[in-house]
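pasting for ref
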Amino acid sequence: MELLSVIRRWHYRDRLPIREIERRTGLSRNTIRKYLRSDAVEVRFKVPERPSRLDPFADKLSEWLRVEAGKGRKGRRTVRRIHADLVALGYGGSYGRVAAFVRRWQARREVAQRTTGRGVFVPLAFQPGEAFQFDWSEDWATVGGKRLKLQAAHTKLSHSRAFVIRAYKLQTHEMLFDALAEAFRVLGGVPRRGIFDNMRTAVDRVGTGKVRQVNARFQAMASHYLFEPTFCSPASGWEKGQVEKNVQDARRQIWQVMPPFADLPALNAWLEARCIERWGELSHGVLPGSVAEVHARERASLMPMGRAFDGFVEHAKRVSPTCLVHFESNRYSVPASFANRPVSLRVYPDCLVVVAEGQVVCEHARIVERSHDVPSRTVYDWRHYLAVIQRKPGALRNGAPFAELPEAFRKLQAQLLRRPGGEREMVDILALVLQHDEGAVLCAVELALEDGVATKTHILNILHRLTDGTSTAAAIDAPQALALNQEPRADTGRYDALRTREVRHAS
């Protein structure tokens, strides 16, 4: 191209003859005349059409590439695999020609995406109270002295752009329900519509177009809060671009400057306060005023939240012979009367509730561990095993649930187990919590230990005095100084007069 420019400049500007140009460039006069007659400003070479062995398979290969582009990264076939499949169809060419075709196809696709379809967007506008957008992200924070990977739930009002962030350890149903309930509480109400991606906690199956098989539990939650759930097209995150941008902004402006926290509730309290603070710092961008000011005007368009959705996930379980139910590789105790029986386990973000026969049987704090290196744990409540040790008192000595007894009970047990029959006596004392307040029983045990009489009889006497011997007499208002009319005398001689009396005995 540079040589052609020089030839044109020499001929038209400097008026050099073709012979002189021939001498300077070494090109033939015919070539120089051809360039000048064509009036071309750049050199173009004609590439002859050469047939390829890949031509009969070009349409099939393009169709395969379109299908593979819609799959996830891990589910796509490699170019080597595609070449092998073409060979199975009768292709006799090389792998390199297939790879070159794939590169050209991908380059054309990228150009098309930058100019049409996914590269072109329509600005969206939302009315007050019309919609909110929801999305998950993964972020890191220091909690309890450990660096943890957390699942952050982002909820953002589409009109005012007010947002709420909460952190969880998992992206499960109960976490989603809790995140939305807390978001509606902070935002001051519920919009008419919710925009979600096709997350597994909401959509069981993606159909053609906008057809979705919505998860039954998710649908119950949406029906409770009276909002209409809508779902984005697959791999179309721009349909909820506001919350997608919020994920990026929060990572830079909130998560990177986050201090360490003792536990997850403290972290979420800080996140809530920081989000509300950011509302006042951010300008809305489209409407006049800050995000906080626009949100204050939008609150009147939100439906009041009302009662929070009971966002548990229920699992059918069978209690083991050791009075345990299993969940997420951990075990939790259940009262012995339900051993070997089916129960219902209600899973909440922070606790587990066991229900049987329509009644709550027991409740435990939930253990959520993401690391596979942490061994499974067993959570006992020693009260659940009282019915068992009443029949088998020998199990008290080495029973795992009774390693977590209160300090007073453990001291009493250490003394009683050294005596014959002490196991049975200790079991009877522990069983007192079934009929009396546990605090009163512990107080009776502590008083017995202070008296140095660690026996069942003494503890029962103290317990009865604590529960039944409460005096109801009115308080006496006595003067500060009392004086006796007749002072007592210390005269032991009075007892000698008693000995002179005749003692009469019954005959």
